[in-house]
């Protein structure tokens, strides 16, 4: 197995992204790998506080920090308990490093940027996020990342969506 | 940790599919898994009588000892390239996995999705472009179709040339 890999998972706290996270942990993550949880928030019209991180995204946030509600409050992200539970277990069982990074802007662009910035070896994402159009087979973000990413991309389907 | 998984790789012996196979072996395949190479031949290219038997369901699973044998493969009308075979056999040895090939006849889009459901596969890895004439596209029509219609996770491995 290739060692010390950097595996990215796009997380928007939708059911689909949780499935993707679970799949990445169960099927890809191994000892000494680093799992990057990438969360993209919409760009705020009120720029004052976040200006610092707008361009480059937040600094890398280690697991011990992003489980703290107080820490995440300053990024305006509410850590989902299910997600925290999954990564906690993964961190101990797999002996892998878990970090999070938050970006602001369009998820299509930011996810592709993340891959380049963080030099990710691969990216895992759900097929559909929180978007309103539920009829499509694959959401526009997954589709865009798959076509434009420079690394292998895994799309994890939501089994409740029939085809 | 998962139990025994069936990992499928779409193989058309193009550089892109070799890349996909290599990636799958290096990153996904673990000891105890089944690595299944899926090859789709155009419909109607029947070399002998047996193929018609397998039109609906695909060929039986072909073990690595057989798919490395050109005489046996001739019967199926498939000519695997040596590099792909090498990646597969090395994987079998080093990762201690069973590597099998399954051949289907028909439209690759449909047959790959059928394979996913019928085998069934835990996940499938595809290249982004095969042997098609249009080499300028970023993503081929088969990879695109499989990602959209597959019932299991799909990984697209890009080949940059």
UniProtKB/TrEMBL annotation, chain A:
<dbReference type="InterPro" id="IPR014729">
    <property type="entry name" value="Rossmann-like_a/b/a_fold"/>
</dbReference>
<dbReference type="Pfam" id="PF00582">
    <property type="entry name" value="Usp"/>
</dbReference>
<dbReference type="InterPro" id="IPR006015">
    <property type="entry name" value="Universal_stress_UspA"/>
</dbReference>
<dbReference type="InterPro" id="IPR006016">
    <property type="entry name" value="UspA"/>
</dbReference>
<feature type="domain" description="UspA">
    <location>
        <begin position="5"/>
        <end position="157"/>
    </location>
</feature>
<protein>
    <submittedName>
        <fullName>Universal stress protein A</fullName>
    </submittedName>
</protein>
TrEMBL record, chain B:
<dbReference type="InterPro" id="IPR006015">
    <property type="entry name" value="Universal_stress_UspA"/>
</dbReference>
<protein>
    <submittedName>
        <fullName>Universal stress protein A</fullName>
    </submittedName>
</protein>
<dbReference type="InterPro" id="IPR006016">
    <property type="entry name" value="UspA"/>
</dbReference>
<dbReference type="Pfam" id="PF00582">
    <property type="entry name" value="Usp"/>
</dbReference>
<dbReference type="InterPro" id="IPR014729">
    <property type="entry name" value="Rossmann-like_a/b/a_fold"/>
</dbReference>
<feature type="domain" description="UspA">
    <location>
        <begin position="5"/>
        <end position="158"/>
    </location>
</feature>
């Amino acid at each position: 197995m290739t060692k010390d890999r950097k595996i990215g998972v796009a997380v928007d706290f939708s059911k689909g992204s949780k499935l993707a996270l679970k799949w990445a942990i169960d099927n890809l993550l191994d000892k000494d790998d680093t799992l990057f949880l990438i969360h993209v928030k919409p760009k705020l019209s009120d720029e004052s506080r976040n200006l610092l991180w707008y361009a480059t995204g937040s600094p890398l946030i280690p697991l011990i920090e992003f489980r703290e509600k107080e820490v995440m409050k300053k990024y305006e992200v509410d850590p989902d308990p299910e997600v925290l539970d999954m990564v906690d277990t993964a961190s101990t069982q797999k002996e892998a490093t878990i970090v999070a990074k938050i970006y602001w802007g369009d998820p299509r662009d930011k996810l592709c940027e993340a891959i380049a910035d963080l030099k990710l070896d691969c990216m895992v994402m759900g097929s559909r996020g929180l978007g309103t159009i539920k009829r499509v087979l694959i959401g526009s973000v997954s589709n865009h990342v798959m076509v434009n990413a420079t690394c292998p991309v895994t799309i994890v389907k939501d089994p409740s969506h029939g085809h | 940790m998962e139990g025994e998984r069936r990992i499928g790789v779409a193989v058309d012996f193009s550089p892109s599919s070799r890349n996909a196979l290599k990636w799958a072996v290096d990153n996904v395949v673990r000891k105890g898994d089944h690595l299944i190479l899926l090859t789709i031949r155009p419909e109607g290219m029947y070399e002998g009588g047996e193929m018609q038997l397998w039109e609906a369901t695909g060929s039986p699973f072909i073990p690595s000892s057989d798919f490395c044998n050109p005489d046996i493969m001739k019967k199926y009308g498939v000519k695997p390239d040596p590099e792909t075979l090498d990646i597969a056999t090395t994987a079998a040895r080093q990762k201690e996995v069973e590597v099998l090939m399954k051949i289907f006849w028909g439209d690759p889009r449909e047959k790959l999705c059928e394979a996913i459901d019928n085998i069934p596969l835990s996940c499938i890895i595809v290249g982004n472009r095969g042997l098609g004439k249009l080499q300028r596209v970023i993503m081929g029509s088969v990879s695109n179709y499989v990602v959209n219609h597959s019932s299991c996770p799909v990984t697209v491995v890009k080949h940059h040339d």
